Amino acid sequence: MSVILASIILWALVLFAAWFVEGTDSALGHGPLPSALNGLAAYLRTLLVAVFGILVGGAMIVGVRGSAQYGERYSWLIYVFVVMPLLILLFIPLERFNGGTFLGMPSFLVGIPGRMVIATALGSVLLGTLGMRVLLKAPPDEGAARALTQRSNAGAASREAAPGRFTGLAWRALSFMQEEAKRFEQSNMGTEHLLLGVLSDTRSQAARIVIDLGADPASIRREVENIISRRGPLFGGKASMTQRCQRVVERAVRIARNSGVRTVGTGHLLLALVENPEDVAGQLLDSSGITADRVASVMRGMPAESDD
After folding, report:
1. CA 308/CA 292 separation, integer angstroms
2. CA distance linking residue 251 with residue 39, whole number of Å
3. How does pLDDT run across 67-96, given as a tens digit for each residue?
4. Are 239 and 156 in contact (CB under 8 A)?
5. If pLDDT is split at 50, 70 and 90, which confidence band does 142 have?
6. Residue 192: closest CA among 227, 217, 159
7. Which residues of 124-157 are buried (b: 16+ CB within 10 A; e: fewer)?
């Protein structure tokens, strides 16, 4: 639903901006032709044209990144509903003098100003998807990597998201989550990256629980990787966990404490992931028959994960 709403908003902004820019171009006239607006009104209209250009470009970047972060499983729909139609519009013949418009389309969509608005929107999507870090070949943020991989010197992001002691395999899962995000050229670490980390080691309690429930950890990992790869590179600045991922880790800490266990293991992380069916990780686990009740039941019959 969030992806559909974002698509509607983006389309409304693009269409309104194209209509406004086309109207401004017609009202101001060309060359020495007299303008239909007085000096102040013409000046204000030109300023608004610039504002709408910035607004459309920024909204496209935010819309694409936001749908990827919060829409997760259906984030690709933003490309179907918005990007593909805009690409089609980009190749429609422009309006010719006294020749009418292509298939009777509104003139603001097949004129030069409207074409520039559409090109600006598509350019913003391209930059928002690839990220300036990819274009500039900037090195990865090593500080953020150390924050998740060094147990004795965890950074602020991991401390805020995980206020508790973790087993060695759980720390390895958090470290691997960072590596997976880097592998897919994404700075935001979501629940799907955490699931990859949790199932990265077959010795972990989480992997053994999945196997005991009749599922294949490797198969689940492949499904998650396919979803992440369709999303493409996404950079939002310094590497950090998404709010949803932070809440999952915090929930794992509470689960461990409520069960009287001193350390948080991969099983607690898995149970916290399963309890979030709105996330892509929770949905994939549920589709594999891995539910919260079943995970909790298997965990009760298992010894606690080693703190090594």
Report:
1. 26
2. 61
3. 655 555 566 677 777 778 878 877 887 666
4. no
5. very low
6. 227
7. bbebbbebebeeeeeeebeebbebbbeeeebbeb
